[in-house]
Amino acid sequence: MKIVDAKVIVCSPGRNFVTLKIVTEDGIHGLGDATLNGRELAVVSYLNDHVIPLLIGRDARRIEDTWHYLYKGAYWRRGPVTMTAIAAVDCALWDLRGKALQTPLYQLLGGASRDGVLVYGHANGETIESTVEAVRHYLALGYKAVRAQCGIPGIPNAYGVGRGAMSYEPAEKVEPLNTQWDTARYLDLAPRLFERLRHELGPDPLLLHDAHHRLTPLEAARLGRSLEPYHLFWLEDPTEAEVQEAFRLIRHHTTTPLAVGEVFNTIYDCHRLIEEQLIDYIRTTVVHAGGITHLRKIAALAELYQVKTGSHGATDLSPVCMAAALHFDLNVHNFGIQEYMRHSEETDRVFPHGYSFQDGFMYPGDAPGLGVDIDESLAAQYPYERAYLPVNRQTDGTMHSW
Ligand code: CS2
Ligand code: MG
After folding, report:
1. Per-residue pLDDT at 154
2. Strands 361-363, 117-125: pairing kind
3. Residue nearest to atom 8 of ligand 1 (CA)
4. Are the C-beta atoms of 11 and 384 separated by less than 8 Å?
């Protein structure tokens, strides 16, 4: 099963996506998502200039060996660009393997550990009232779990608060949007939002919240403690996660469950968080953490320490990644939840797929491999447009994490 061709497809059906397509001598093709939001072309170059020449002639069945060949063979290890490129190759090889054996990916991984994949949607509002309404809307659609984000009075365009009803797009075309941040106002508002949500919706809905790395460990500890009466499913990214030890302080002060890891790209970014049981959910996902091969190793480590998975699934991860994530989620024993932001209709048309949503759960479907394809002629109608994530500054102008 020799690889005879590989190419990178860049398209922008509403937002940018990078897709790797690998073709074998039998004429089968496999797909991998290679999208790194706001830095897309760096991964395109990494694949085109450095990785694809190494793939031609290799046996597509050697998935594990190819992973190590690309990771160790480069000498320069880790980092989002490298690991996204490796993930795309890895994912495409798993897709190919499933197609060659005529079996859905989850069956290759060990079969289904559950009947469906619990997902959470994103409810956003400018005010507490409109956020409550947005959560209600998701519950009416059948979601069991909803992330709630609310605008902060006097802070226009706070990051992570969507401006559309069902989806939000963090990247801006041409140049970064400047956004503002005020921690004091946020720490005052967040517990009031969740108090209101519990009061209006009762104890059953699973409620999540994302702090987008914006707090110091002490502020995060205070937030976690103030949210305890409202029993969150998780509080995500409470502080910057480069220093894993910082979570000791947060953990010491609050029983609010913590989720971290959408920006991590290897097991080395999170092994201490997992081994010291400083978090409850690890958010690494297929596209940014080295593909299915590496994500399974992170999950296996997490399983030892009763840490569950909660993979990132924002709209900047393409339907190819979404499909891969759902196969992984259906199989992995210590699955917790999967993020699911709906893609736009134009994106769904470019990437026809077999996965589906029903009553708060998702299903990867039983098509061979990932069960997702790319319509290349349609993709060609949406050329790449440079886009950036917003930058965030405190009210005095100092740069801040978003
Ligand atoms: C967010 C993402 O989904 C999440 O939890 O943190 O929207 C994230 O900001 C984007 O995926 C960045 O590209
Ligand atoms: Mg997040």
Report:
1. 86
2. antiparallel
3. 314
4. yes
Whether pLDDT at 52 is above 90: yes
C-alpha span between 5 and 392 (Å, rounded): 42
Element (H, E) at 282: strand 281-282
Bridge pairing between strands 258-260 and 234-236: parallel
Q: Catalytic residue among 122, 209, 212, 312, which?
A: 212
Using one digit for the tens of pLDDT, what is the confidence trace for 185-240? 999 999 999 999 999 999 999 999 999 999 999 999 999 999 999 999 999 999 99
Instruction: List strands edge to edge, sheet with 399-400.
Output: 178-181, 391-394, 399-400
State the pLDDT at residue 165.
53
pTM of the model: 0.97
Measured from the Cα of 341, ligand 1's closest atom is 3
223-248: b (≥16 Cβ within 10 Å) or e? bbebbeebebbbbbbbbebeebebbe
Smallest CA separation from ligand 1 atom 7, residue: 314
φ, ψ at 62 (rounded to 5°): -90, 70
DSSP string, 112-146: -SSSSEEEEEEEEESSHHHHHHHHHHHHHTT-SEE
Active site residue 159: yes
Ligand 1 pocket (Cβ < 6 Å) reads 37, 170, 210, 212, 262, 312, 314, 316, 339, 389
Ligand 1 atom nearest 210 alpha carbon: 5
Instruction: Give, as one character, the DSSP assignment of residue 299.
Output: H
pLDDT digits (tens, 9 = 90+) for 204-215: 999 999 999 999
pLDDT at 166 over 90: no
Atom nearest to 313 CA in ligand 1: 3
Catalytic residue among 46, 106, 143, 159: 159
**Span from the CA of 314 to the centroid of ligand 1 (angstroms):** 6
Per the annotation, the verdict on 212 as an active-site residue is yes
Candidate from 167, 210, 284, 401 with most ligand 1 atoms within 8 A of CB, to mutate: 210
